[in-house]
Amino acid sequence: MVKHSNENQVIEYVSGDTTRRALAVLNDVNKALSLCRHTHQVILYDRYVAGYPDKQVSLKLQYGRTRYHELKIAALNEFAERLKVQSCGIDLIVLK
């Protein structure tokens, strides 16, 4: 099974067998999420932390399917940009 190189970077960083590194990653994720636009925070938190399905999140935000998916992509991109500049420097951005 081949993993995405950015995923490998995160796995290697976290699996360094130190609690300090794991806490640093969690702090960076929290900081990056807190810096995102409010709507993006709701999408990311509800979908990926709370585990609600996309349909439930879109209904909560009162967006149709297409607009919700546009916002979800924007939220993921914003989160990746904000995470990259945190202290751990985790880069989730994939250029196509």
The number of helices is 5
Oligomer: single chain
What about the largest sheet?
none
- Global Rg: 15 Å
How would you classify the helix and strand content by structural class? mainly alpha
Distance linking N and C termini:
22 Å
Q: What helical percentage do the residues reach?
A: 55-70%
Mean pLDDT: 86
Strand content: under 5%
Flag low-confidence runs: none
Global morphology: elongated
How many DSSP-defined strands? 0
Helix/strand order, N-terminal first: HHHHH
Describe this structure in words.
With 96 residues, this protein is mostly helical. Helix content is 70%, strand content 0%. It has 5 helices and no strands. Helix 2 crosses helix 5 (65-84). The longest helix is centred in the last third of the chain and has 20 residues, at 65-84. The protein starts with a helix and ends in a 12-residue tail after the last helix. The mean pLDDT is 86.
Kindly summarize this structure in a few lines.
By secondary structure, the chain is an all-alpha fold. The protein is built from 5 helices and no strands.
Entry keywords:
elongated, 70% helix, 96 residues, 5 helices, mainly alpha
What's the helix and strand layout?
Elements: H1 5-14, H2 19-35, H3 38-49, H4 54-61, H5 65-84
Helix pairs in contact: 2-5, 3-4, 3-5
